[in-house]
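User: Hi! I'm working on a homework problem where we have to compare a predicted structure to a textbook description. Could you give me the structure for the chain below?
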Amino acid sequence: MIPTELNERGLKAAIRLGVDEAIFVSATGNDQMIRFANDSLTVAKKTEESVVSVYLAKNGKRIVGGSTNTDEEGLSAFVERLYKTMVNLSKEPVYAKLPGRPSKLKRAGTFDKRLGDAEKEVSEFASEAIDAAHAAGARRSAGALEASLVSSYLLSSNGTEGHDTTSSILLNIRSFTERNASGHGLSCSSSMKGFGPAEAGRRAGEDSKRMLNSKKPEEGVYQILMSPTVAANLIALVGSFASAFSVDSGTSYLVDKMGKKVASDSFSLTDHGRTAGGLGGRVFDDEGTPTQSTKIIEGGVLTSYLHNLTTAKRFKTESTGNAGWIEPDAWNLEVGHGDSGYSEMVKEMKRGIILTSNWYTRFTNYRTGEFSTVPRDGTFLVERGRVTKPLSGLRMSDSLERIFSSVKLLSKKREWIQWWEVDTPTLCPWVLVDGVKITRAYGSAP
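Assistant: Happy to help. Predicted structure tokens:
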């Protein structure tokens, strides 16, 4: 069943049951994925999947659910089960109705339709990355590459319709010269034109070679130069803390910070529903509200939370087009650029560490934003503006507010980042931060 028919039949089934409001969002995705290890292909997979997400409401009660059973009989049965479950629920403490005026929201951005059928290209791109890593000094590489094309359709009981298509291609490569000498590279783009597998492989290979004979760090306080990969991991977390749901539940360090300084003057953060080069987003959110660009932080000041209709009603404001029926989420995050080059930023470091990749970011206190993360792969000590030696086995501990309130320099050049440590696509520069605590990460993986 095609998505528009799926939504129409699902909505008819919901109306027959007597719902007050209903929304159906169906999505069809074409995905090609390969994994490689020791320079050899280990997994190749092509999938085409359709899923329908459903929102039902009646008498102040609401329920949401999703199903991959998209034939007519299966969809009707699913909607009926959802409805029967909903009538036994309690009324919502805050209930926000859908907008009364219907709208038609159609594709606003561009996409690369070639990414819907790119089996050959995906394999060739992986080979490019592996070859570039070898040429730069790596002995072996592993990673994954995924290309996808997703079309989404919305239909609601108030007559709102939406249709949008996005495309993306993501490469993650990790290269080794020895077991404890590794480098990481990634490239992601909304089209083949902007994709750089060879550059990602080169970075991974070069850093793996530079990491030979790495040493444990001296514990202390350092300047930290975060690559876009590392900085985007933390910035995507700031985006999640800006969700009004997190704020309302008291699990965000941004509670009671509206209109207050939460970062340095040079730091700004914006969420875009759709933006040039953005890998995610749509022209409509799950409630049929048009998406937009929302300034979360401007000049270091918190200027907005991200809202759906329910959180907007609680906060006595308007939806920002970030639904999530339950929790508002960011679509595409953009950090404002600075005017520095990478070499200039390194020269500014008196005693610092360059971080190119990280993992295991965990919070010790969500309410204060205190976290720790484990750098890995290319990690280098800088003394008096010169890179002096590679480091391994360290941990960075701080709070998100202190980190971004201590930004000293931002690079002019920015990169789109998305991988398993960064769920929300983020356009991010290199970020130089003062006064970060570094300890040894005993027992951490290399």
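For your comparison, note the following. The first helix runs from residue 3 to 17. Residues 338 and 410 are 4 Å apart (CA to CA). Good luck with the assignment!
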